[in-house]
Batch of 3 targets.
Target 1
Amino acid sequence: MSESCNHDCGSCSENCSDRASDQTDFRAKLNAKSHVKKVIAVISGKGGVGKSMVTSLLAVQTSRSGFKTAVLDADITGPSIPKGFGLTGKAAGSENEMYPVVSTNGVSIMSLNLLLEHDTDPVIWRGPLIAGAVKQFWTDVVWGDIDYMYVDMPPGTGDVALTVFQSLPVDGIVVVTSPQELVSMIVEKAVKMAGMMNIPVLALVENMSYFTCPDCGKVHHIFGESHIDEIAEKHGVQTVCRLPINPELASAADAGTIEMVDEPELEPLVKALTGR
């Protein structure tokens, strides 16, 4: 415990013995009609690296492997998961519980955009309200039986990340990055935060890692050379994936047909997570 400790562990990320011993006190109770076996948070140190795209692809490929899969969209002010899956309906519910919207191929999804009257309505909330909404997606949503839940986190290491790490039984995180050296530095912040919260880093995913020319087949590193292997070695992360720049993926996300595409470079990660 530091000398400046105010004894409010809910607002602190220090990995001290006092906080660790009481960590379970902060776990929010899952909805009584739900059973979630594994919770995996997908995070990034900054925005614009394709975190939601990776979350969606992981959910799609996990579902294809025969597992009951869900996505909890914790990016409250920038929810993009429903659009990628082509969801236009709204989530139903009662006074005490809500129900996720199920995609064409069976992925259960809850996002604030499934509750807003219009998809383009802004969410102008302060941090505590945003964090509270994320907890409600865990406590009030009737998820049913879920094998793998992916939590699409907002970028950075702020209120929502702390809320998810302390309130949900997160089994591990997947960190999404891009090749720029500045981004690599920011990624280390996210990795170190996970370490402070005693949550294992399951994989690093480098999006927009390279581009293969369709005419000559030459590989181009548009955003610079990769640093992901160095970061992985430094922090003992065993699984590393490099995703190419693929216009088809972006088009599918815009068109709401993310379930119709595949990303072979993520297959080793899905296998590492699920065993299939």
Note: The first strand starts at residue 35 and ends at 44.
Target 2
Amino acid sequence: MEILLGALLSLLASPILSWAQTPPAGAPPFSINLGGGQELSVSIQILLLLTVLSLAPALLIMVTSFTRIVVVLSFLRQAMGTPQSPPNQVLISLALFLTFFVMSPVWNKINAEALQPYLDQKITQAEALERGVNPIRDFMLKQVREKDLSLFVEMAKLPPLNSPSQVPTYVLIPSFMISELRTAFQIGFLVYLPFIVIDFVVASILMAMGMMMIPPMLIALPFKLILFVLSDGWYLLIESLVKSFG
């Protein structure tokens, strides 16, 4: 897991085509050593690289801020009563660009501490992979709840850990995802509250007027939209989301 994650992070921090092209002059070639002086053939290396690329979307979701952002945006769409607007393409694109924005310090650190020294032949491939994993682990450790981390450490039947650096990556990732989902649901609850109040007021008024045949959602939708626009809802939501990772 650490090797796959490190390879992905190094890949995201550099142009994708650089893996398929001849390395720059003086740069060490990409190779995988099995120990004992044996190295994998080029075809096997390409196969492993394609495997890492196929896992890239899942790893991107698991170890970045994407999960929290996309869940909160989905809650917003449901709370407003517009399940098809914004469309899924717009929602996912916004979540991805916000993820790149939030994670940019991590990518820059990976590029500066792992990828560039490796291309300059200052460190070995194993050291580059280890350095590439550390920044993303630090990010996850800042966001994960101790309770969630303890749960997976206990289920993995690991001995007592003395420091966060001793937490295995396969334990840290699910702990981080559970913590992200909890935080996203907390933010989603707060997003829902003002829209629920509007639904309640509109439904009460319609019942008092005897207009029970008119769907309250149909009447409440314009008021939800104008409330969201007048309060500059996108600004407030995005600001809160990005700052929640501080």
Note: Confidence is low (pLDDT under 50) at residues 1-5, 7-32, 34-38.
Target 3
Amino acid sequence: MLIALSTLAGGAVAASVLLVMTNGQDDRHLRVADTNFVPTYQPAPSSSTVPSTTTPSASPGPSSTTPSAPPSPPSSKTSTPKPPPSTTSSSSKPPPSTIAQQILALVNQQRATAGCGALTEDSRLGTAAQKFSEDMADRDYFSHTTPDGVTFDQRIKAAGYPSPAAENIAKGSTTAAQTMTLWMNSDGHRRNILNCSYKKLGVGLDKSGWYWVQDFGF
């Protein structure tokens, strides 16, 4: 199984990770490249493995109930018993029902732990992220810059969002939990997720190649 990650912040590559899984082990190379220093390769210990994740169970859709028939008028001999009280809790919240909502919930859990404010979903960032995941799948590439030379900030602005901040991408993982684990185990991706100055998030996924995209906005 081949899993790849890449992250971008402020127009410069922040980190990229390539994991090649062989017999339960992986060879990992992390490259960090900021504008302040020259990129260098820093191999992680060969014994490290990506923490296992469990596939989240499918989220139930909105529950529906069928109204019960009205009780028959009481007869002179018998009375209609009252229905039992409902046991459904009105305070319980349903789990996230879409991949984007799952990623957003997992991101905000991590941000809350780090003392950052929660991100909110933005449809323009979501559009940019989804179109980009589909484009990578359709044209079989994995990069923050398209084969035509279009950068992440240009794509976000073209979708109508004026303040692009950063981008994380991943390929090969098949659940939101697994993808978030990979991103959080990579320094560059983690810094994007835990950047307290970011306010908005859009998520894209193309399942034909399992291309994941996070687009962040100020």
Note: The chain has five helices and eight strands.
